[in-house]
Design brief:
The structure is a single chain. By secondary structure, the chain is α+β, with helices and mostly antiparallel strands. It contains four helices and three strands. It has one domain: YefM-like domain (YefM-like fold). A hairpin with a 2-residue loop joins strand 2 and strand 3. The longest helix has 12 residues.
């Protein structure tokens, strides 16, 4: 993975695109901090597929965990009571 500043990225964009197309991740920095990453089309499409997947909620994930707890037990019920009293 290579790192390049915005100014140098503008000057050498063609070469950076070639690197990304070859499978390299090119990090573009602004003021020394990572600002963007240039990746191949395949890597971008794989990332989009992963982001688009339906992910289970934490409770659904915990219910699938093999343990001796009934999934309909009150442990998984939502507590709607306020956590504490406050004076505003």
């Amino acid at each position: 993975m290579s790192r390049v500043g915005v100014k140098d990225a503008k000057a050498g964009l063609s070469g950076l695109v070639d690197e990304a197309a070859a499978g390299e991740f090119v990090t573009i920095t602004r003021h020394g901090k990572p600002a963007a990453v240039l990746v191949s089309v395949e890597a971008a499409e794989a990332a989009k597929r992963e982001m688009g997947k339906d992910r289970p909620s934490l409770v659904a994930h915990l219910k699938r965990f093999p343990v001796d707890v009934d999934p309909d037990d009150a442990v998984f019920a939502r507590n709607l009571a306020p956590s504490r009293e406050i004076d505003l």
